[in-house]
TrEMBL record:
Name of the protein in its database record: 1-deoxy-D-xylulose 5-phosphate reductoisomerase
Domain 1-deoxy-D-xylulose 5-phosphate reductoisomerase C-terminal: 147-230
Pathway stated in the Swiss-Prot or TrEMBL entry: Isoprenoid biosynthesis; isopentenyl diphosphate biosynthesis via DXP pathway; isopentenyl diphosphate from 1-deoxy-D-xylulose 5-phosphate: step 1/6
Taxon lineage: Bacteria, Pseudomonadati, Pseudomonadota, Alphaproteobacteria, Kordiimonadales
Family: Belongs to the DXR family.
Length: 390
């Protein structure tokens, strides 16, 4: 039988921003890709529309009750409808390429399933690497899986990193846009609203990562992500604010050469790189016109403005359970901020306190790591209650 010329794609977190960009590329290249499975958390309507359009073999809704209540939406879909966490883990091990685009630590176990099936994984879900980097990378080696970074900075580095001569790399610098509050008066930070925080100047993203960009926790998480993805020491990692988001990160070599990937700030570019790696495809993204940019600026980050970045850098240096705790506390705090339960400036305070109250002993297994994650979430919730009583 001739091999199927189409690459089959499973998208975990298909209803989000990364899911949108991935499906946009698949729509543009029907002669190259087909959808094997799509998963979503709660957005049943959007998933039903995508199921009808792409007719994948399987779709999964994480929320079992919503699935039961909305069966009627899927009458024009011919494939298999599944629900629950276990079903997401099952489809994570199916397809030629897995796009891991669930937000938060909720994506960890599906990523692990994909790794253990030896898959090629286009990894957007940075929180999985932040909370379980050592364990995931051990499994990647053991099962011969391939991680291709979707995150624009890591994708940029991946494109110019000489893996065969990694000792010749002297520094990785992640570029950051600085988010919407780069020049806002620091005295007004406590009155920042969720609406202001999610309005990112350059990128159109999900609400959690948008808040992380506004606090610059995102860049901190990305430093931890870079530490696991590339053979590099902690002190060889750096961050620079570059508000135009044209240079997506740089790799400095010991001879003084600096290599970088440039492009319009459009996630279709790094996603396409992963989808058809090592080939390059048309994306429809705006081509870069250097003359139009006129000026590129670079600023060192200020920790008074962005304390979350410092907390993440410290967590990376401390190691052990610190990144797991940092990530869990941040997820809970960001959720509370988005629901207007705490102030923008409380996010870093809550994360810092949670780190102080937590044990830093390194997780010994995934089960142990999930316990640490859960404990940090409980600690953060009680810190939120304490904040409200102040
Ligand atoms: P989003 O909020 O737009 O979408 C998240 C997706 O995950 C949705 O499909 C949602 O249904 C699913 N999901 C959420 N919680 C879930 C749960 N508990 N169980 C199962 N599914 C769940 O987020 P996004 O902006 O697409 O980001 C996805 C990931 O990619 C994040 O880790 C983010 O940091 C990373 N990332 C995003 C961008 C971007 O431009 N959006 C860039 C770089 C990295
Ligand atoms: Mg990024």
């Amino acid at each position: 039988m001739p091999a199927d010329p189409l690459k089959s794609i499973t998208i975990l977190g298909a209803t989000g921003s990364i899911g949108d960009s991935t499906l946009n590329l698949i729509r543009q290249h029907p002669q190259k890709f087909k959808v094997h499975a799509l998963t979503a958390h709660k957005n049943v309507r959007k998933l039903a529309a995508l199921a009808e359009e792409f007719q994948p073999e399987k779709i999964v809704i994480a929320d079992e009750t919503l699935f039961q209540e909305n069966q009627a939406l899927f009458t024009r879909y011919k494939g298999e409808c599944l629900s629950g966490k276990e079903a997401i883990k099952k489809v994570a091990a199916e397809g030629d390429l897995i796009v891991a685009a669930i937000v938060g630590a909720a994506g960890l176990e599906p990523v692990l399933e994909a790794v253990r099936a030896g898959k090629v994984i286009a990894l957007a879900n940075k929180e999985a690497l932040v909370c379980a980097g050592d364990l995931i990378m051990d499994e990647v080696k053991a099962y011969g899986a391939t991680l291709l970074p979707v995150d624009s900075e890591h994708n940029a580095i991946y494109q110019v990193f000489d893996f065969e001569r990694s000792e010749s790399v002297s520094k990785l610098t992640l570029t950051a846009s600085g988010g919407p509050f780069l020049t806002r008066d620091l005295n007004s930070f406590s009155s920042i609203t969720p609406e202001e925080a999610v309005a990112h100047p350059n990128w159109d993203m999900g609400s959690k990562i948008s808040v992380d960009s506004a606090t610059m926790m995102n860049k901190g998480l990305e430093l931890i992500e870079a530490y696991h993805l590339f053979p590099i020491e902690v002190d060889q990692l750096d961050v620079i604010i570059h508000p135009q988001s044209v240079i997506h990160s740089t790799v400095e070599y010991r001879d003084g050469s600096v290599l970088a990937q440039l492009g319009s700030p459009d996630m279709k570019i790094p996603i396409s790189y992963c989808l058809d790696y090592p080939n390059r495809i048309e994306t429809g993204a705006k081509k870069l016109d250097l003359a139009e940019i006129v000026q590129m600026t670079f600023i060192k980050p200020c920790y008074d403005r962005f304390p979350c970045l410092k907390l993440a850098m410290d967590a990376l240096k401390i190691g052990g359970a610190a990144p797991t705790v940092l990530n869990a506390a941040n997820e809970v705090a960001v959720e509370a901020f988005l629901h207007k339960k705490i102030k923008f400036t409380d996010i870093s305070k809550v994360v810092e306190k949670c780190l102080e109250r937590s044990d830093m002993k390194a997780p010994q297994s995934i089960a142990n790591l999930l316990e640490i994650d859960e404990k940090a979430r409980i600690t953060t919730s009680s810190l939120l209650t304490e904040l409200r009583m102040d």
